[in-house]
Amino acid sequence: MPTTRLDRAVIRDLPMFRPLSPEDLDAVLAHAVARRLAPGETAFRQGDAADAFFVLLHGRLKVTQTSADGQQVVVRHVNPGELFGIARAVRRPDFPGTAEALTDSVAIAWPADAWDALVARCPGLAVDALATVGQRLQDAHTRIRELATEAVERRVAHALLRLVRQAGRKTDEGILIDFPVSRQDIAEMTGATLHTVSRLMAAWEAKGLIAGGRKRVTVRDPHALFMLAEGEGR
Prior knowledge:
Elements lengths: L2 E2 L17 H8 L3 E5 L4 E3 L7 E7 L2 E6 L5 E7 L4 E2 L13 E4 L3 E7 L3 H7 L1 H27 L2 H16 E3 L4 E3 L5 H8 L3 H14 L2 E4 L2 E4 L2 H8 L5
Antiparallel strand pairs: 1-2, 2-9, 3-8, 4-7, 4-9, 5-6, 5-8, 10-11, 11-13, 12-13
Helix pairs in contact: 2-3, 4-5, 4-7, 5-6
């Protein structure tokens, strides 16, 4: 994974760093490097020693976890400007998941042992870390509720709508989820089988709700998808 040194211009517009003076920005970046990840390349793998933490500058990542019986679950997507790999911030010695680039991506990496000193200089890091952990808990609770109470059609519709909110881009055809996402990914996000997800999405394509492509999904009728998610599908 190639690395390069950074100057303050690359982070000064990120919300967590905006309050810092130029001198503080230089100090924050003193031990940081940029890491470029090609699609499919990992920033870290589940079980690796948590020897770094990151902020994504450009691109998209997915974070997956693999259970003891080999089942893989997509637990979150990382968008530009977000912290990830903050295991040491919660005093965990290893990474609980694998972070894989979906597109050409660039992240800033700091050594894990720099966390406490950086938080002292930049309280925004701690605020963002708390928000990140809180969002993960909320997402986990949402998924548990959906798995326990909702039919698979509603779970898949909710998953697509979440992706639209995270990375939707308007096009002539509808709202494109602006990073590669496969039907297998959606199955792993929703606790469904690939066969079931493929069947549902083929039916939705036939009705004009979505348009599919190779690892691309465009939502053509967001309202109809919302109604499906709420159990009011046509």
